[in-house]
Input
Amino acid sequence: MPKAVDHEARRRELAEAVWRVVLRDGVERASVRTVAAEAGWSTGSLRHYFPTQEALLSFAMELAAATFLERIAPLQDVTDPRTVLRALALELLPLDEQRRAEMAVWLSFVARSRVDPSLHEAQRKVNGETQTALRRILTWARNKGALRPGVDPVVEALRLHSLLDGLALHALLDPELFDPESIVATVDTHLAGLLADTGTEEHAEDRPERRGDHAGGEATR
Output
């Protein structure tokens, strides 16, 4: 019998080849030909799954977002909104080599989305979903009495989203100034202004030095 082909796995393999090309050479070099060579495929085989460069890049961008969502899925079982909000915020930041690589690739896609309608739509979708998630968590925190009085979940979702985007961008551009310890401290200070009775608990498991990470190294996947 013919060997069964896992088409979804093959599509993911190609998307990961896109990520490697984008990380190493930039999104403008992620053509059908270069991605096929990176994956060890023929261009004809790649076009069977993605007939155009736009389709290939769009899938790779959507899969990058889906990979992040898979990683934060366990937070659905956490009952403390403070823990969920902090963990989500830190996952959106390039605090280790894996997240630096993911963020570098993501920002390359975002820059390309200004001239690529398919990427623009994917970028808008992810931004919208991030806003919705932050609003939902902050509203949940307010309903549980975990927010300071007068805090507006809608406004604070926008503020937090903007802060995280800014920290992520600067961490990639200037990792010596925006090092992991400073980024985590900035996030904690911001959340302390939102959350009631935060206390002084040490979140040692999330400290970059405990993870064996260092954002100053070159990002690799």
Notes: Residues 60-211 form a domain with the Tetracycline Repressor; domain 2 fold (CATH 1.10.357.10). Residues 198-221 have pLDDT under 50 and may be disordered.
